[in-house]
Amino acid sequence: MNTGNGTRILVNEVATRDGFQMEGRFIPTEEKIALVDRLSGLGYAKIEVTSFTSPKAIPALRDGEEVMMRIARRPGVVYTALVPNLRGAERALDSRVDEFNVVMSAGESHNLANLRMTCEQSFSQLSEVIALARQAAVPVNVSLSCVFGCPMEGEVPPAAVLAWIERFAALDVRGITLCDTTGMAYPTQVQAVCAAALERHPALDFTAHFHNTRGMGLVNTVAAVEAGIRRLDMSLGGIGGCPYAPGATGNVATEDVVHMLQCMGYDAGIDLEGLIGAAAQLEALVQHELPSQVSRAGHRLTRHAPPADFDDIVARAKARKEKEQA
Ligand code: COA
Ligand code: ZN
Is residue 1 part of a domain? Predict the structure, then answer.
């Protein structure tokens, strides 16, 4: 394992999209805006603010336009949104997004369940979205779901993943996110898939996106970074998940990943104490305990008070030592 040596990692926050889409409670629009505005000051490269999906499919994000239009845009932060089809792209353009994050799955069954289209139908729809983006001079990132496995089909062959990347690369997209939608990835697989993608397409901006469903989120993150990935999606508090992917749970938690990367010597550019404060605000919003750990435990060098009788313990140990020496 390598030390970070100050290597810059670009952090993308997805709590207000991947996170809120999965919450039972509708988070009021004002609260969404207030949270994005707070996060904007913490050092993120990108914030996935919302999605422009069907309000029937994702009712939690039916206020996408209002949120996108009313957040305070901080220069240097890319404000992106998930776009599944042409209708979503038009809404995203009207809301002045900085980037389209178009989505489709590398697994046929998940694509059908999530987007009600075959992969080919999605690709054809997204090709039109990409053409629209080009006319409007909006950059496009592709979030490819189920890269490391499909919850309904099992293994997704790496060759199929690489073929989708190839087809999107031919459309001149700026970047591709390799999404582990339901936490099926494991470190050696992550290493192999990320290395193959980077080797074939050195000019594309690759991002890794992990869910912690089986407790492998952090180790998969290390595997991706060691393979050369420099952009990571993560979710404050570890909330998140796809409502149309059976068994999905939250993303890797931003505070857990940032804390780990900082310990290892990477430069994530993020204010950890600020994150922990924002996680407390998020917990109040979602009204349940967050799955993240560093938001509760704090930094590894957080110092705890000794036991109440500590002075007595020290005095007795000293007395014993003096008696032994006498
Ligand atoms: N935004 C708002 N409304 C949309 C829309 C969009 N992007 N796309 C479609 N609609 C509306 C249509 O106008 C139509 O409305 P109507 O019933 O009032 O006429 C209705 O939704 C059905 O349209 P259709 O094109 O048949 O869509 P569909 O029902 O086949 O659903 C998707 C396809 C892609 C729109 C839908 O499955 C979706 O939004 N999925 C997103 C899932 C998601 O975000 N998952 C988590 C992230 S991975
Ligand atoms: Zn996700």
Answer: no
For residues 231 and 205, is the Cβ–Cβ distance under 8 A?
A: yes
The verdict on residue 4 lying in a domain is: no
Lining ligand 1 with CB less than 6 A are 21, 51-58, 82, 84-85, 87-88, 91, 103, 114-116, 145, 242, 244
pTM above 0.90, yes or no: yes
| pLDDT more than 70, % of the chain | 100
Domain membership of residue 2 (yes or no) is no
Could you confirm whether 242 is annotated as catalytic?
A: yes
Give the residue whose CA is nearest to atom 14 of ligand 1: 54
Residue 326: predicted pLDDT:
87
Exactly one of 146, 150, 242, 263 is catalytic; name it: 242
Could you tell me the residue range of the domain that residue 63 belongs to? 10-325
CATH number at residue 266: 3.20.20.70
Buried residues in 151-187 as b, exposed as e (16+ CB within 10 A): bbeeebebeebbebbeebbebebebbbbbbbbbbbbb
What domain count does the chain have? 1
**Residue of the nearest CA to atom 11 in ligand 1?**
54
